[in-house]
Design a protein that fits this description.
Elements (H helix, E strand, L loop, with lengths): L1 H22 L4 H7 L4 H10 L2 H4 L5 E6 L1 H5 L3 H4 L2 H5 L2 E3 L4 H4 L4 E3 L5 E6 L5 E3 L2 E10 L2 E6 L5
Helix pairs in contact: 2-3
Length: about 150
């Protein structure tokens, strides 16, 4: 009997720890801001008010351009909310699920292409995914090496 009580206590403690860690998971915007590769994209989301859309429960999938790619845009493009919405879609699209897709519709209404060129290279509108499946409390982030225009 004591053996089962110990197992029960262990399982309860483990489930509470898991639940507690999920409560403190970072949101999409928090992850983007804290990542040195995507901080400029996060700033643009805040400046345009697009952050209000992705601060909701979600889930959302974000294709975040690197700072190097985002730097190439003009000031006007960086403040174009439709251009920023080209990088966001409703739902959780992990790398694995993206490999089964060919076209997806973003929050801007634009349909973008997904190319699975081989077993290792996955591109979104010809932009290579450099880091995939960054989990957040309200979705997933994939870092891409370009901007979806």
């Amino acid at each position: 009997m004591k053996y089962f009580q110990k197992i029960f206590r262990f399982a309860l403690t483990l489930s509470l720890l898991i639940a507690f860690s999920d409560v403190h998971a970072q949101s999409i915007l928090e992850k983007l801001k804290s990542n040195s590769q995507t901080s400029q994209f996060a700033q643009a989301l805040e400046n345009t008010g697009v952050d209000n859309r992705i601060n909701q429960a979600g889930p959302f999938t974000v294709f975040a351009p690197t700072n190097a790619a985002f730097d190439k845009l003009s000031v006007g493009q960086k403040s174009d909310s439709n251009l920023l919405l080209n990088h966001i879609l409703t739902g959780m699209a992990t790398e694995r699920s993206l490999r089964a897709m060919s076209d997806i519709t973003c929050l801007s209404g634009k349909t973008i292409s997904v190319q699975n060129k081989n077993s290792t290279n996955l591109t979104i509108e010809s932009n290579r995914i450099s880091v995939s499946n960054i989990k957040t409390s309200n979705g997933v982030i994939h870092i891409i090496d370009g901007v979806i225009k």
